[in-house]
Amino acid sequence: MSTTNKNEDIKLSPVVRRRTARDIALRKGKEPIVSLTAYITPMAARLDDYCDFLLVGDSVGMVLYGMESTVGVTLDMMIAHGKAVMRGARKALVVMDMPFGTYEESREQAFRNCARVLQETGAGAVKLEGGKEMADTVKFLVERGIPVLGHVGLRPQSVNVYGGYGAHGRSEDEWQPIIDDAHAIAAAGAFATVLEGVAEPLAVKLSKEVSNPIIGIGASAECDGQILVTEDMLGLFSFNPKFVKRYAEIGTGIAAAIEQYAADVRARKFPSDDHTYKMKKN
Ligand code: KIV
Question: Do 126 and 54 meet the contact criterion of CB atoms below 8 Å apart?
Fold first, then answer.
């Protein structure tokens, strides 16, 4: 594509092709798909070069707003964060998580809210939690132009039913409903499916036999891709779930920086000469 428009002297910045849901779907069984959550512009800009897709997760409620679960997250919160992420990401597909209560009632409700989210944010896909019971809705959305990322296994929006965030499928007699869910969502046309918090042998089996890419979180390295909450893997919180590998310790880094800042302010060492404006020389 040309980077110069009809007006010869106006040079446009190079066009970058953003990844699509279809690009992700075509990666089944190929190079692993890399994804992370993002909620704000500067983080999205940092992640964009390395990730195939960024998820504006409803985990934003717990990570940025200190909520106890994702149940209280609203559509307006998601849209605000989706717009922020779209301002930072140029290459990665941006996927918008649909919050609790905005898609489960009927496929029409789901279409209305998903369409609003895509129109107002410019993101390229939505994510819905749910298995067999959501398959009809997923099909309805996909047939009407809305790419859907599924989410089966542990579904955080159902925490009030499960009573916690424990792993699923740790005994084989729990496997069948999860297997049925993953197949139903793939058959409905989801371009990929997040598989969260399940025993590793079940994740390996599903990655082999389900037709769309399986994106693991607390699942298996054999999945078609991986996703983590960025702030978890960067070590912002002291609590660390078993499935999170911490690639940095920004929480302790922040604490050390703030301690030093407070000490400098109290000792009148900050601002120093380097950080103050001098008078202009005449
Ligand atoms: O909301 C979220 O961040 C998610 C991921 C953990 C998959 O759903």
Answer: no
Ligand 1 — pocket residues by CB below 6 A? 37, 55, 57-59, 97, 194, 196, 217, 227, 229
pLDDT at 230 over 80: yes
Q: pLDDT value at position 15? A: 72
On the question of a cis peptide bond just before residue 213, with omega within 30 degrees of 0, the verdict is no
Q: What is the pLDDT of residues 75-112, one digit of tens each?
A: 999 999 999 999 999 999 999 999 999 999 999 999 99
pTM of the model as a whole: 0.94
Q: Are 269 and 276 in contact (CB under 8 A)?
A: no
Distance 58 CA to ligand 1 centre (A): 6
Q: What is the CATH number of domain 15-249?
A: 3.20.20.60
Per DSSP, the chain holds a count of helices (H) and strands (E) of 11, 8
* DSSP conformation letters of 130-149: BSGGGHHHHHHHHHTT--EE
Atom 4 of ligand 1, nearest CA residue: 57
| Domain residue spans of the chain | 15-249
